[in-house]
Specification:
Blueprint: E1 7-11, H1 16-27, E2 31-36, H2 39-51, E3 57-62, H3 68-82, E4 87-90, H4 106-134, E5 137-142, H5 155-174, E6 180-187, H6 203-210, H7 226-233, E7 244-247
Parallel strand pairs: 1-2, 1-4, 2-3, 4-5, 5-6, 6-7
Helix pairs in contact: 1-7, 3-4, 4-5
Length: 254
C-alpha cells in the first residue's frame, strides 16, 4: 500500500510499460487515471483491476497525447473525479523508423517530438498548479538509454529522449522548493509492442545499431520496469530528484 490514496496519471497505459505501471500502482493502493488512445484496452485494464480485487482502482480516459484538447481533458477529468493529482507518469512514446539525418523528414521529426517531448512539457505544465498548491508531487518521465547515448535509435528518437532528460533535470531543480520531484527512467530494450510501428527502417541506422548487438544482454519484460516507477512515485524516494534511473540489465555498463 505504498501509494494508498494517491492519485496517479499514467499515459501509454494500454500496453507495455504503462500497463504494468498502472497495474502495480493499483496493487499498491493508487487511484490510477489511465490514459491511452484505445478505450477497449483501457477498459480491459480497468476490469482486470476490478476482478482482481486490487485495493486501488483504474479510471479510464481515452487520450491522444499529441492533441492539446485531449491533454487538458485528461487533467480536468482527473481533478473532477479525485480533486487532486499526486503522481504523473509521462510514459507514452513512439519510435522513428530508425531514420538517419539524411532520410528523416520534417513530418516524422515533428510527430516524434509532439509525442515524446511536447506532450511531456504540456501535461507536466497542466498538473503543476495542483502540485504547487499541495506542496507535493512526483513527475516521472520515461526517457531511454537513447537519451544518454547516441546510437540507440534513429535521429529523432535519440534527440527526443535527450530532450526528455534535460527537461526532467530543469523541472526538478526549478520546482524542488515547491515539494515537487521530477525524475526519469531510462529503460534499455523492453519487450513491448512499440517495435510493431517499424515498417520502413533506415538501413544506415540499423547497420550502426547492429554493431552493438553483441554487447546487448537481453530484453526486459515490462513488469521488470514497473517497480522502478513505483519507487519514484512513493515516499521511499522522497530525497530523489532530478535523477535518471537506468534500468537496462547492464547494457550500458559495457
Amino acid at each position: 500500500m505504498r501509494l494508498e490514496n494517491k492519485v496517479a496519471i499514467v499515459t501509454g497505459a494500454s500496453s507495455g510499460i504503462g500497463r504494468n505501471v498502472a497495474l502495480l500502482f493499483a496493487k499498491e493502493g493508487a487511484k490510477v487515471v489511465a490514459a491511452a488512445r484505445s478505450l477497449d484496452k483501457l477498459e480491459t485494464l480497468e476490469n482486470e483491476v476490478k476482478e482482481g480485487g486490487y485495493p486501488g482502482e483504474i479510471y479510464s480516459v481515452p487520450t491522444d497525447i499529441s492533441k492539446d484538447e485531449d491533454l487538458k481533458n485528461l487533467v480536468d477529468s482527473a481533478l473532477s473525479k479525485y480533486n487532486t493529482i499526486d503522481v504523473l507518469v509521462n510514459n507514452a512514446g513512439i519510435l522513428d523508423q530508425y531514420k538517419s539525418l539524411e532520410n528523416i523528414d520534417e513530418d516524422l521529426w515533428m510527430k516524434v517530438f509532439d509525442v515524446n517531448v511536447h506532450s511531456i512539457m504540456k501535461l507536466s505544465k497542466l498538473v503543476l498548479p495542483t502540485m504547487i498548491k499541495n506542496k507535493k508531487g512526483s513527475i516521472i518521465n520515461t526517457a531511454s538509454v537513447g537519451g544518454l547515448h547516441g546510437m540507440r535509435g534513429g535521429l529523432a528518437y535519440v534527440t527526443s529522449k535527450h530532450a526528455v532528460v534535460g527537461m526532467t533535470k530543469n523541472i526538478a531543480y526549478t520546482y524542488a522548493d515547491d515539494g515537487i520531484r521530477t525524475n526519469a527512467i531510462a529503460p534499455g530494450s523492453v519487450s513491448t509492442n512499440i517495435a510493431s510501428s517499424i515498417s520502413d527502417p533506415d538501413n544506415k541506422t540499423l547497420e550502426k545499431l547492429m554493431a552493438g548487438v553483441k554487447i546487448f544482454p537481453k530484453f526486459a519484460q515490462p513488469d521488470q520496469l514497473s517497480p522502478a516507477y513505483l519507487f519514484l512515485a512513493s515516499d521511499e524516494s522522497s530525497f530523489v530528484n532530478g535523477e535518471v534511473l537506468v534500468v537496462d540489465g547492464g547494457w550500458t555498463a559495457y
